[in-house]
Amino acid sequence: MTKDKSKLDKEDLEAKEAVTPENDTVEEVNATEEKVEDLKTEEEKKADEIEALRNQLNETNDKYMRLSAEFDNYRKRTLKEKMELTKSAGEKILLNVLPVMDNFERALKSVDESNDIKGVKEGIHLIYTNFKDFMIQQGVKEIEATNQAFDTDLHEAITKIPAPSKKLKGKVVDCVEKGYFLNDKVIRFSKVVVGE
Length: 196
What we know:
Blueprint: H1 2-19, H2 26-113, H3 117-137, E1 140-142, E2 155-161, E3 172-177, E4 180-182, E5 185-188, E6 190-195
Parallel strand pairs: 2-6
Antiparallel strand pairs: 1-4, 3-6, 4-5
Helix pairs in contact: 2-3
């Protein structure tokens, strides 16, 4: 065993000599060890940075998923509200039209029972005025057509006739069917006869 021990001591000595050549000093060894430690600390810093970036990525993904879910809920909620609004929007208008319908029924009843044509005419004119006022309240306005310059944005020419006077050339001579605006948007074009 002593031979083996001396052999091991000899091998350790040779290994130490191989690692630290004679021209290396203690300071160089210390500098090398410091460099190794610096490399270790740089690796640890990089590992910490990578971990911080992973955490930041996870947070960002979490925020994105939550935002995406919130937007999806918002979209579904607004779609549902639009559907309900569409259903109930017509209800309000129809409720306001019902009194006009009642007036027409009364007028029809009085037409059958009355011989006073003047009174019936007045009643029908009142109902028409009532209904026209209701339409104006809803934002519906009549498009002026007769004696106006022909405008393709407002009028639809159904025919042309010779103008009764030179002033009416290129203008609307007669309005066959009235056109209407709904809040300054044309919802029905006026069907007109144009003078040429």
